[in-house]
């Protein structure tokens, strides 16, 4: 109290005394009287007082909030050389004279920033550079951010790295995060990944949510740090609790799957729901899958439709397709083929190849009293949209012409429309390539057909990958290349395609221009066999019966051969006879049934 009185007396005689008195009042919690004292000192030209007054206006401390007045006083303090004011002023310009309360903490956040006015990157860069050169770690981090993420004319990644390093070396968590992100952007080798992980660890220790999340991603993948699923999940939890929606989604998924943490379906759904409500389309799609497929939670198609709709509106292609399927079947929503077509179209336009086919199949498979009229009407819609330049519609119109859906079959015209659509629609590339290879509506041209099928394959269409691999194997339409064929089969197999899994096994099994590896072959045969592929079941049975891959298991071999036989594979009958089993008809119920459920999220 005595100190406060002394400062009060001093404030009566000097601006510096008014500043000291104002600061002491702030410490005492009397912001209203503090503001009055600081204003008097600021008016006398004391830079720190000007900064404090600007801060008070921005924070509403002892005075109503005023961004304009806050910026005006910050400008005066910054021009007088007060470094912290220069940093805050740069932040104000960067966010369009919005609140500077978050400082650089907000710069690297994944949460979208609320726009209050247009950002002025030129002024932001000017004041951030002054603060950086004056030694402000926060100013250095801010300037690095502007040089990294600002307009093209301001970008200078090399200079940004310099300022991030300066900031990080001074102990700034924001500088460490910026440096970590800069390193990740060019992390082409493990050493740079390790350096990035070190910087992100520093930033995470400073409580930066984005750093915690990114460190979780690196820990999950083993990039720059030792792979540790439990540690990664713990980092996702921390990021989730700090409001990082991607962290919420990954933590929710980890809980659902019991990956790195004890399985908790209800808790997982709760975190996924938080992420989805925050705008994470992938999380919304996952919840849709959860309710559509049932299992841990009872199926609820109405709930699934709501979440798929949220994901679809966020641009999630597979969720758009899933929503279309619900409308097509009337599950959880009123059956509406037109609405189904709308969502199939949106998914197709976003690049979902299956949706492009679904849209065409919706036309070709439409049955009922008015089926033909519906097919004609749909074909007419496709034709009209195609004439207007819609490439997806051009593809579907081409399919209608090729298959005689709602119109007389005309493969020549079909080929013309498919060629037009092939410039932008992957499925059209595949269809057109097949027509060229088979001479449907055009002269046979294996070389050109292979070219178009290859384009579709490179874009990720599984059917095209399988077809292109077969062309590479046989050397049709171009050079024979078994190594490239294997790569294509492997890419298709990575999606779980059963025929691709079998083909990879067959290639590794020998007789092709790649190194033989029977152990790998057996592994792929097993994957295909478990999915119901009869020939894979035969091959797996043979391998196990004869110990081809070094493992002999007669009981298991017999089981797989019996499954192959139950699907009508005659060779399996002969293999069973070699094992001493008499020919017999498959037992009732022995024939396996496979149900493939495609999730919207791809998980």
TrEMBL record:
InterPro entries: Sel1-like (IPR006597), Sel1_AlgK (IPR050767), TPR-like_helical_dom_sf (IPR011990)
Signal peptide coordinates: none
Region (Disordered): 582-603
Gene3D superfamilies: Tetratricopeptide repeat domain (1.25.40.10)
UniProt protein name: Sel1 repeat family protein
Pfam families, A to Z: Sel1
Phylogenetic lineage: Bacteria, Pseudomonadati, Pseudomonadota, Alphaproteobacteria, Acetobacterales
Source organism of the structure: Lichenicoccus roseus
Database matches in SMART domains: SEL1
Xref: PANTHER family: ERAD-ASSOCIATED E3 UBIQUITIN-PROTEIN LIGASE COMPONENT HRD3, SEL-1-LIKE PROTEIN
Coiled-coil segments on the chain, per record: none
């Amino acid at each position: 109290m005595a100190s406060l009185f002394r400062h009060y007396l001093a404030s009566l005689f000097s601006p510096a005394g008014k500043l000291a008195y104002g600061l002491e009042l702030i410490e005492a919690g009397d912001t209203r009287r503090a503001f009055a004292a600081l204003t008097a000192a600021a008016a006398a030209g004391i830079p720190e007082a000007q900064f404090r007054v600007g801060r008070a206006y921005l924070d509403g401390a002892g005075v109503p909030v005023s961004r304009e007045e806050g910026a005006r006083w910050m400008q005066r303090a910054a021009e007088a050389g007060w470094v912290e004011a220069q940093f805050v002023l740069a932040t104000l310009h960067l966010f369009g004279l919005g609140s500077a309360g978050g400082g650089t903490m907000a710069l690297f956040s994944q949460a979208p920033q609320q726009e209050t006015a247009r950002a002025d990157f030129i002024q932001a860069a000017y004041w951030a550079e002054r603060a950086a050169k004056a030694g402000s770690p926060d100013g250095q981090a801010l300037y690095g951010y502007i040089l990294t993420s600002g307009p093209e004319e301001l970008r200078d990644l090399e200079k940004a790295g310099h300022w991030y390093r300066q900031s990080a070396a001074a102990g700034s968590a924001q500088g460490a995060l910026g440096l970590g992100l800069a390193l990740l952007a060019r992390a082409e080798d493990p050493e740079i990944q390790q350096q990035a992980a070190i910087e992100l660890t520093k930033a995470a220790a400073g409580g930066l949510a984005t750093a915690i999340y990114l460190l979780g991603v690196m820990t999950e993948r083993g990039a720059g740090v030792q792979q540790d699923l439990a540690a990664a999940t713990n980092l996702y939890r921390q990021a989730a609790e700090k409001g990082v929606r991607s962290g919420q989604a990954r933590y929710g998924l980890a809980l659902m799957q019991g990956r790195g943490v004890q399985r908790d379906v209800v808790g997982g759904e709760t975190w996924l729901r938080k992420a989805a409500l925050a705008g994470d389309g992938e999380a919304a799609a996952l919840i849709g899958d959860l309710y559509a497929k049932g299992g841990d939670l009872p199926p609820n198609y109405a709930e699934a439709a709501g979440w798929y709709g949220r994901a679809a509106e966020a641009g999630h292609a597979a969720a758009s397709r899933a929503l279309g399927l619900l409308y097509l079947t009337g599950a959880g929503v009123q059956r509406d083929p037109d609405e189904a077509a709308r969502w199939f179209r949106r998914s197709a336009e976003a690049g979902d190849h299956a949706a492009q086919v679904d849209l065409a199949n919706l036309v070709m498979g439409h049955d009922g009293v008015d089926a033909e009229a519906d097919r004609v009407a749909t074909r007419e819609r496709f034709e009209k949209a195609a004439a207007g330049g819609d490439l997806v519609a051009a593809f579907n119109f081409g399919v209608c012409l090729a298959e005689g859906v709602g119109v007389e079959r005309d493969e020549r015209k079909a080929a013309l429309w498919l060629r037009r659509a092939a410039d932008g629609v992957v499925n059209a590339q595949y269809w057109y390539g097949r027509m060229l290879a088979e001479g449907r509506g055009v002269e046979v041209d294996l070389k050109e057909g292979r070219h178009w099928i290859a384009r579709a394959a490179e874009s990720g269409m599984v059917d095209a990958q399988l077809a292109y691999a077969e062309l590479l194997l046989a050397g049709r339409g171009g050079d024979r290349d078994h190594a490239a064929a294997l790569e294509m089969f492997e890419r298709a197999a990575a999606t779980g395609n059963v025929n691709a899994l079998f083909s990879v096994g067959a290639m590794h099994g020998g007789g092709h221009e790649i190194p033989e590896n029977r152990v790998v072959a057996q592994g792929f045969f097993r994957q295909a066999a478990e999915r119901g592929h009869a020939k894979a079941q035969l091959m797996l049975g043979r391998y196990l019966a004869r110990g081809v891959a070094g493992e002999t298991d007669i009981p298991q071999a017999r089981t797989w051969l019996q499954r192959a036989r139950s699907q009508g594979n005659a060779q399996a009958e002969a293999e069973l006879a070699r094992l001493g089993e008499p020919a017999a008809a498959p037992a009732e119920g022995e024939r396996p049934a496979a149900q493939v459920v495609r999730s919207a999220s791809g998980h």
